[in-house]
Amino acid sequence: MTNNLLGSLIGLIGIVLALVTHMMVKDLTYDVDFLMILFGRFVFSLPLLFIFAIIARKTNFFKINNWFYVLLRSAFGLTTMLLVFLSLQLIPIGLVTALAQSSAIFVTILAPIFLGEKIGIRRWIAVLVGLFGVYLMTNPIGIINGTSDLSPLGLTMATISALSHAGLALILRKLGKTEHPTTTALIHNCITSFFVVSGIIIFGSSIIGQKGTFGSELLFEPNYFLNILLLLGFIGSFVQYFMTTSYKYADATILVTLRYIAIPLAGIFGFVIWNEIPSQNQIIGGIFILTSCLFITLREMKIN
């Protein structure tokens, strides 16, 4: 087996597991308070992330060269995750995934401003195509006229998540030159866990998102849903491990383009599990977004 094939398989497993965590978050809606879902995703992932970081870096597992960008990465990462998870509670998973993956479009728009990168005419055309796809999927005219059957709040949060993910991508480009990914992932989860636990202690577990049947009492009266939260954290830690490990073997060009497979997969799972049927405009918009992001990514890799 070649390194590219091995890395692609590892990366694909990471992509599928990430989609599985999104499906678990969506399925837990109305059963578990939103902050408790975040508690499971981040706090319960910490033990394995500590192990992965220690294995990778030994005694330097917590060593950071640029704390400002690491903290900024955590801020953007937490914002992106919050917006994606909240939007999953309100709109179909396929729609959330397509809008979230459109971040490549916004990275292209922001790169000249923050990184000083030059963008050619073909990539700007791809940006316009992608933005038109976002327009078709969100249907802002339908929202204004009151004819859309989708949650305006859910659509707004999913779209903003693409912007925050674009900011995260720009920060990760800088961090990749100075920091080890396992350490930044560990610190990101530690910071997020701190805010989640603090929020639950101060405000309660139902302060944000959909209120569920179970809240923080899950930790003291274990039941089926606590096991699901433990599993969510366990899978979440492996998502980051597989994503990091895949880059040790496969070319970045292959791995970055692989992630767009999440768009059709999310649509299929949404239909099978929740009977979510996308509209014609959503399908066409998704195709525009997928085509635009693939072109932008491949073009950028070719230039680099």
Short summary:
By secondary structure, this protein is mostly helical. The chain has helices spanning 3-28, 34-42, 46-57, 67-88, 93-101, 103-114, 121-138, 140-145, 152-175, 181-203, 224-246, 252-258, 262-274, 280-303.
Tell me how many strands there are. 0
Ends distance = 27 Å
Number of structurally distinct domains: 1
N to C succession of SSEs: HHHHHHHHHHHHHH
Q: Report the total helices.
A: 14
Structural class estimated from helices and strands:
mainly alpha
Helix content: over 70%
pLDDT < 50 runs, ≥5 residues = none
| Largest sheet report | none
Describe the protein.
This protein is mostly helical and 304 residues long. It has one domain. It is 75% helix and 0% strand. The protein has helices at 3-28, 34-42, 46-57, 67-88, 93-101, 103-114, 121-138, 140-145, 152-175, 181-203, 224-246, 252-258, 262-274, 280-303. Helix 2 (34-42) packs across helix 11 (224-246). The radius of gyration is 19 Å and the shape is globular. The two termini are 27 Å apart. The model has no long low-confidence stretch (mean pLDDT 87).
